[in-house]
Amino acid sequence: MFSGLVDEMGRIEAVEVDRAGARLEIGCSLAGQIEPGDSVAVNGACLTATRVTRTGFSADAMQQTLEKTSLGMLEPGSPVNLELALRADQRLGGHLVQGHIDGVGRVSGQEEEGFSLRVRVEIPGSLGRYIVPQGSITIEGVSLTVSGTGPGWVEVALIPETRERTTLGDLGPGQAVNVECDVIAKYVERMVSPYASGEAAPGTVDTEDAPEKSENEDGQ
User: Fold this and answer.
1) What burial class does residue 81 get, using C-beta atoms within 10 Å of its C-beta: 0-12 exposed, 13-18 middle, 19+ buried?
2) Which residues pair with residue 111 across a beta bridge?
3) Measuring CA to CA, which residue among 125, 177, 185 is closest to residue 156?
4) How many helices (H) and strands (E) does the chain have?
5) Which of 74, 87, 160, 196 is the most buried (most CB within 10 A)?
C-alpha cells in the first residue's frame, strides 16, 4: 500500500526486454532503504525489487504490466517517480493507493493558472464513474485532487512543489500516464451494484456465504 507521495525521482539506467516482459534497472538514492522482495511504486505501478545495489535496484515487469501501464514506454534516461511502501506508523499524507493501475491516460492540455498548472488528461471511458470533483486520483504515482472532470477526461492542478519533485513537471501533450482511481469508489460500486441492478434486496444475506459463528462468539 502507498500514499501517492513521491519519495524520490529515480532514473532508468537500463531496460532488458524479452518475450516474457522487461527488467528495469533503476538508479536512486533510496537503495539503502530497500531490501530484495520489497514493493516499490514506479510511476504508480507496484513492482517488486529483485536485486538491490548501493546505487539502485532492479525490478521485473511482466508482459501484462507493460501492456496495461506506461512502463513499456520507459527507456534509459527516463525519470521515474518512486515511492516506498507505507509503514503502519507513517502519516497518510496523500490517499490510499494500491499501485494497481486502472488504465493509461494521455495529456491533452495544459494551462497556467496563477502559481499552479492545470493539466487535462484523457482517460478510458470506463474510469469516469470512479472520479468525482475534489476526489482523489493517482497519476504517475502522484496523489492529486480532481479539480474538474467530464466525459472521458479529468483535470488536476499541479502546485510548484509537485512540479519540482515529480515527473509531472515535464508532462507534455500526448504523453501517456498511469492512472489509478480511488480504491474506495471501486469497493463501494462492487458492494452496491447487486442492489442497484435488483439482484439483491437490502438486508438480505446469502446464508451459504455467511460465515459460521465460532464457539466463542456471542458470549458462548
Assistant:
1) buried
2) 118
3) 177
4) 3, 12
5) 74
Strand partners, 203: none
The candidate with the shortest Cα–Cα distance to 48, out of 56, 37, 57, is: 37
The CA distance from 155 to 40, in Å, is 26
93 Cβ neighbours under 8 A, 6+ residues apart: 3, 5, 143
Residue with cell 484523457: 122
Dihedral sign for Cα atoms in the order 6, 82, 166, 187: negative
Stretch (H or E) spanning 189: helix 183-196
Domains defined for the chain, CATH in brackets:
8-84 (2.40.30.20), 103-196 (2.40.30.20)
Its sign, for the CA torsion 102, 190, 126, 181, is: negative
Letter for the amino acid at 135?
Answer: G
29 has pLDDT over 80? yes
Cell of 61: 515487469
Look at residue 202 in the predicted model and tell me its pLDDT: 53
Q: What is the pTM of this model?
A: 0.86
Average pLDDT rounded to a whole number, residues 61-86:
96
